[in-house]
Specification:
about 325 residues, alpha/beta, 8-stranded parallel β-barrel, two-stranded antiparallel sheet, 14 helices, 10 strands, about 40% helix
Length: about 325
């Protein structure tokens, strides 16, 4: 029996499970697999390489989803060279009548008015409550509330989801997603109990048959524990959670040995995206940086996206209807 939440109603999806935008692996094929399984899949448009190619990706995703909802992620981050043409990407999203947009990184304020005018539902990923409240004031429709467990950029406040999601239920007025470290149905049930209207999964969908990552990466995730990630670039206030491989350990060692003198240029050759993409092509899980959340400790197989979603929903239903329901005791009458 599907869950019905504010998220499923607003996005017109069967299950309150979303795959947010991901650098590298956020392709039309993976996003379509999630949408076709009853969730919401998104491409990260910058993965296409240019606004023109981004348009083709959107058209491909629309074809693959055959009328099912889908989304596009626009991540706004500092770059090592000239910044990507964010405004051109935004215009492509509008021109192609994309129904749902997820923004992440810097403030989305200057893009929101454009998206809202075009009738696009907007999601913004936030790692703190104060950022979530700002996004609400800007007019975002849905908050993706990203806990410290997440892959990629967890921010600098280090607040885990057990507190972050509960705080969200007390102060936010818009529906929000529990994002970061989510990978099974028990967590889906817990997220709903804490006040979220759905979950956002990234790393879990990387360990699926439809993901473009090489088998060597997926096998390393199966073998990993929840402790096998690294927080790098902390001294630069640009923290990233990545898989603990040889390159990540080298970055961590450099950051530690340099101390206050550490600069990004010390490790730029290790963490740049070009090296990471080459490692993916070579199937070398130690050849470059790749992001992964602490949820790797819950990954023990490489299913299809359909199986991931089916299993999550089934486990969440059983948790709520059987395990939790059995704990509610009706007081005996004293009469």
């Amino acid at each position: 029996m599907p869950f019905q939440t504010r998220i499923t109603e607003l996005l017109k999806i069967e299950h309150p499970i979303i795959m947010g935008g991901m650098t590298g692996v956020g392709t039309p094929e993976l996003a379509a697999a999630v949408s076709n399984a009853g969730g919401l899949g998104m491409i990260a448009i910058h993965n296409a390489g240019s606004p023109q190619e981004g348009r083709k990706w959107i058209q491909q995703l629309r074809h693959l989803t055959n009328g099912k909802p889908f989304g596009v992620n626009l991540t706004i981050l500092p770059s090592m060279g000239p910044p990507p043409p964010y405004m051109e990407y935004a215009q492509v999203i509008i021109d192609e009548n994309v129904p749902i947009v997820e923004t992440a990184g810097s403030s989305p304020q200057k893009f929101l008015s454009l998206f809202k005018k075009a009738g696009i539902i907007t999601i913004h990923k936030c790692v703190t409550i104060r950022h979530a409240l700002s996004a609400e004031r800007y007019g975002v429709d849905i908050i993706s509330l990203d806990g410290f467990e997440c892959a990629g950029h967890p921010g600098e406040d280090d607040v885990g989801n057990f507190v972050l999601q509960a705080k969200g239920s007390k102060v936010l007025t818009k529906p929000y997603l529990c994002s970061g470290g989510v990978g099974d149905g028990n967590q889906l049930a817990a997220a709903l109990a804490l006040g979220a209207d759905g979950v956002n999964c990234g790393t879990r969908f990387c360990a699926t048959q439809e993901c473009s990552w090489p088998d060597s990466y997926k096998q390393r995730m199966i073998e990993a524990q929840e402790t096998d990630t690294v927080l790098m670039l902390r001294r630069l206030k640009n923290t990233s959670r990545v898989f603990q491989n040889k390159v990540a350990e080298e970055v961590q060692q450099m950051e530690s040995s340099k101390g206050q003198d550490f600069q990004f240029s010390d490790v730029a050759h290790l963490v740049n995206g070009k090296r990471g993409r080459q490692a993916e092509e070579d199937g070398d899980a130690d050849g470059g940086i790749w992001t992964a959340g602490q949820v790797i400790g819950l990954i023990h197989s490489i299913p299809t996206c359909q199986e991931v979603i089916n299993d999550m929903v089934k486990e969440a239903e059983e948790t709520i209807q059987i395990r939790l329901a059995s704990m509610v005791v009706v007081p005996r009458s004293r009469l």
